[in-house]
Amino acid sequence: MLQVGFAMTALLGALVVGVGQAAAMPQSPAPTGADPVTTLIENLLKGLTTPGAPAVPGAAETRQMIVATAPVATSQTATLTAFEKDDAGKWVPVIGPTEADLGEKGMGKAQDNVYRTPQGTFPLNVAFGRQDKPEGTKMEYFKTTPRDWWDSNMKSPTYNTHVISDVSPGADSENLYNMGPVYDYAVNINHNPNRTPGDASAMFLHVSNGEPTWGCVAIARDKMIEVLKWLDPAKNPQMTIGVNVDAPQEAPAAKLPQGDLLGGIVGNLAGLIPNMLSGAAS
User: Fold this and answer.
1) 129 and 202: one domain?
2) According to DSSP H, which parts of the chain are helical?
3) Taking the C-alpha atoms of 229, 96, 240 and 215 in order, what is their torsion angle to the nearest 10 degrees?
4) pTM for this prediction
């Protein structure tokens, strides 16, 4: 924190000096297309570092996308197709189209105790099953036992996570083994990464039993195995669930964390400097 304070002091001091110099010196035209305020800040930031501060990682490019589309939001079935982006940047279908089961109440806003499939685009982040990992599976995969649960207790500190326990975490938590063949193979649809109670938990892509789900998406067993073998975490796989979705739709680009103090201050200064320059020159 002390290092950040020194860095901010240096930045503010340099900005004040820069503003004073801008007012005192003859004004020369800025290069075409260049914003002098942006240029000033960028030049200052080039030499400004905070030792030990972690870099903000860029979002990995999504090159695998599963699309489940239905004609209306109340539909209990959808058409599922898996796409992969080729080297030319074109999305190519690689699995399907195949029929998929949705929640009893179709798709939309996911809520606990409401059998509705979440609508939107979500990462696929971990796989599991009662059976051995299919040969060639690249995603993280754990084989379940009767001690594996998915915590759906809204009052639990481990809500919407995988829990290993001899007893249930409570409420509507699902035993990932005792749920039976539908969880022979599954992958988590990470629709509630903040684990907000009430926004639903335990939403998976799993094996179908031919009936509407409690909110998951379910496909035929052979297709589920095919999907597991195809998914590659290095290609940042995601899933889009929507109405009349014809092609992959990627999630919005990642934003800087809200706690990015330096970014916020620089942004505010960028808005103030034009007024400061104008006032100093008048």
Assistant:
1) yes
2) 2-24, 36-46, 221-230, 261-281
3) -80
4) 0.69
